[in-house]
From TrEMBL:
Domain Aspartate/ornithine carbamoyltransferase Asp/Orn-binding, chain residue ranges per copy: 199-351
Name this protein carries in UniProt: ornithine carbamoyltransferase
Source species: Elysia chlorotica
Annotated signal sequence range: none
Domain of life: Eukaryota
EC numbers on record: 2.1.3.3
């Protein structure tokens, strides 16, 4: 029989009213405070919960690991004997491969569980019907078996409560609201290409989705300028927009929010977009493609972009989102961006499990 908290949570979840403030007694100390210095034991759920220095540390370590292991051919296995449990309600080749291969490179082992393995269906209704078992089995039992959990799900509330119940670190592999790992990969890619982050102007063209939400938090935290153009009705979450703008006001990041893609790409250094039809939105495909008319990334749109602009897309890509001559061009960094998904999740797992100081110099974050 479900407890009253669980019944209330499920009813609100199924009706579309997410309980942002729902909480239970945590099985571990809540380390998501920005006042904490150590990253060990933290949950990686949102960039909002991390200081600029924390984000820089993740990026520094990702570059350090890439240099040591890929460029220098070093075998480095600090996580030997450690295990990661991967819970996937939403499928993803890149997230699964980057995490499994990354954990293996660090000497650990990852165990993958899809919806059929954890008895968690793809629908929200199925999710709610199994919520009680999920909290008890996944959060509590896995806390005794694994050292870390990465979950890729539909509802952000599930990640929040999983982190609240588990006594081991929980990493977001994506939710419908946020995708913080993708932004670390994007920042690492831009830092490798330009040599810095603060001083760049990033333009987001497309849907006001989970990737944009995390990009807004990341840019605000690091003081990176961001221009956003989304069609009417597809704007980012107003609460996240308000949060990000408050943070940007403190760090000096300039945000331009609107619907004109040509204005957004003006003098931009990086042009970023994503799929217009995400998983779970297949029934909206025809309407979305119609609503996003004029938002395809093409040469004409980018006439007034910065002189050395680059293009990013988290994949998979559809041709209506960006033309072939840009997607496969020298300006496109999508393959480097995809590879960096592995190095950044490796950095996150390493820091959440044990202290680590990179041996290579810290990369620059500010131009000049």
């Amino acid at each position: 029989m479900l407890c009253s908290k669980t019944r209330y949570f499920c009813a609100s979840f199924a009706s579309g009213s997410f309980l942002r403030n729902f909480s239970c007694t945590s099985a571990k100390p809540q380390a998501n405070s920005e006042n904490g210095r150590s990253l060990v034991g933290r949950d990686f759920i949102s960039l909002k919960h991390f200081r600029a220095d924390d984000i820089k540390q993740f990026l520094w370590t990702a570059k350090d690991l890439k240099t040591r292991m890929k460029d220098n051919g070093e075998i480095f296995q600090p996580l030997k004997g450690k295990t990661a449990a991967l819970i996937f309600q939403k499928r993803s080749t890149r997230t699964r491969m980057s995490t499994e291969l990354g954990m293996a490179k660090l000497g650990g082992h990852a165990a993958f569980m899809g919806p059929e393995d954890v008895h968690l269906g793809a629908s929200q209704e199925s999710f709610c019907s199994k919520l009680f078992s999920l909290f008890n089995i996944f959060a509590r039992v896995l806390s005794g078996m694994a050292d870390i959990v990465l979950a890729r799900v539909y509802g952000q509330d599930f990640l929040d409560e999983l982190a609240n119940e588990a006594s081991i670190p929980v990493i977001s592999g994506l939710s419908d609201l946020l995708h913080p790992l993708q932004i670390l990969a994007d920042f690492m890619t831009l830092q490798e290409h330009f040599g810095y982050l603060r001083g760049l102007k990033i333009a987001w063209i497309g849907d006001g989705n989970n990737i944009l939400h995390s990009l807004m938090y990341g840019c605000a935290k690091l003081g990176v300028d961001l221009n956003v153009a989304t069609p009417a009705g597809y704007e980012p979450d107003p609460n996240i927009t308000e949060d990000a703008l408050k943070i940007a006001g403190k760090t000096g990041a300039n945000f331009l929010m609107g619907s004109d893609p040509v204005q957004a790409v003006y003098r931009a250094d990086a042009i970023v977009t994503d799929t217009w039809v995400s998983m779970g939105q297949e029934e909206e495909k025809k309407k979305r493609i119609k609503d996003f008319a004029g938002y395809q990334i093409n040469r004409k749109m980018l006439k007034e972009a910065g002189g050395n602009w680059v293009f990013l897309h988290c994949l998979p890509r559809k041709q209506e989102e960006v033309t072939d001559d840009i997607f496969y061009s020298e300006e496109s960094l999508v393959w480097q961006e995809a590879e960096n998904r592995m190095w950044t999740v490796m950095a996150v797992m390493l820091h959440l499990l044990q202290p680590y100081t990179p041996i290579n110099p810290m990369p620059k974050f500010v131009r000049g």
